[in-house]
Amino acid sequence: MEELDAMQSDPVPTLEDRLANMDFSEKMLDLCFILDTTGSMGSYITAATQNIELICDEIINSERLASPECLRIGLIAYRDHPPQDMSYVTLKFGFTSNPKAVKENLKTLWASGDWRPQASKMAVLITDAPPHGIGEYGDGFSRGDPSGHDPLQLARKMAQAGISLFVVACEPAFSGYSYSNDFFRAIASITSATMLPLTTANLLPHVIVGSAFEQMDMERLIREVGHAVAERVVVGIQSVDDIAKELHEKLLLRNESTKQLIVEDIYRDSPEARHNVEVWLNAFDIQAAKPNLKRIIGSRFTEKYLQSRYSSISSSSSTSTSTSTRIYPLPLPSRKKKTSPSSTMNRKQASTSSPSRQVVSDFKVFSNTTPKSFSDYSGKSSSNSPPSIKPSFNSSPLKDVKSNAWTRGTSSEDDSEADDDDDQDDNDNDDEHSHHQDPCPPSSSLDQLHLGVDVKQDPISFAQARRITTSAAWRIIRT
């Protein structure tokens, strides 16, 4: 515990020196959305695109940023490689300080701008499926990305560049795959971020804003104490956990508090899952990891979450009329494909390629001029607040003034209609991965009642101290 005090003669500033001389200068955030635009992602894409201006306003007005120009938004959309998808693999739209310009960029395919070196860098991946090559049944590209990009190596490059990748796991489709959960936990950990489960689309804006708040606090501390911490990691005398523990203790002595996004954990812990995460963390690439993975037996979800879903569906069935109750959502129209008689006859047979994932959005929702309010999911503005006054974080439209916690909201007509898309892909993929599909009922509009999302200002946690330690270490490797 006395080692940091002995570093005062070292030319590198000590942890205490950096803590005592914190510079709360202007903060900047580059926030990049990475959207999976295939499969059953319709409701999540809608939630992100319709609320993008409100997301930006909430971050700016939280007093975390000095001006609108301090926040820039970028977008990367992706689908699949041919022949699974013939439209595009990725589309990149450059960073901009104007949220409305994001909508226009999507129409004109204009792209410019890059990550600012002085900004906090944050990417949010919103998906319900894993990448190619991690060992899933029926993967048409079992050797990985046809372009040769390895996601583990890309994640490490992101970590070296100081880009944190938050993964929003759209459930329950996400956990219908064998290794998706463990893989993305590892990817998020490599980049000093977290994987966040989401069971209903109308909570997505809350998760994005909360992640941004937390990330900016992490970046502030990384810049103040990161170099001293990273030097000790590189020396290798202490473990990352030991260094993070000492950092955590010293930050608590300084009464350091941070914004912390709290999302209820719906995943069942198991030795096999922890083993797989470690395999992904330490493997050189995905091909080296696959032989060492362990199969998880049973559901990925906790008993509490499974019971809540069964209860929701049972309650919905007993209180709704026959005309309004529809647990199994209708599928979206399929993309038109040329089919041969032989392919039609063999449709029910097990496929040797990855499941075809239908396109659900061409980003037309970005053309909407009036986004919905987070706090009023009917799409109407609240009459209690003057429209000319923008709320601060303490009076955030995301916040429940009675409970001092963030509201979970209720679905609007748009959300309910979009939620109908959530599981349409499940029926298409029954043959491909039915052998490990979780024994979990289909999505219900009542899922939101059973997943807590909150943001709190609390003393810094050990998990955050560890993220600071690992992120600082990755960045010093780059230099």
From TrEMBL:
Classification of source organism: Eukaryota, Fungi, Dikarya, Basidiomycota, Pucciniomycotina
Stretches with biased composition (Low complexity): 312-329, 371-397
GO cellular component, one term: cytoplasm
GO MF annotation list: protein serine/threonine kinase activity
Domain annotation VWFA: ranges: 30-225
Polar residues bias locations: 345-359
Name by which UniProt lists this protein: VWFA domain-containing protein
Coiled-coil boundaries: none
Species per Swiss-Prot/TrEMBL record: Puccinia striiformis
Matching PANTHER family: ALPHA-PROTEIN KINASE VWKA (PTHR47763), DUF659 DOMAIN-CONTAINING PROTEIN (PTHR47763:SF1)
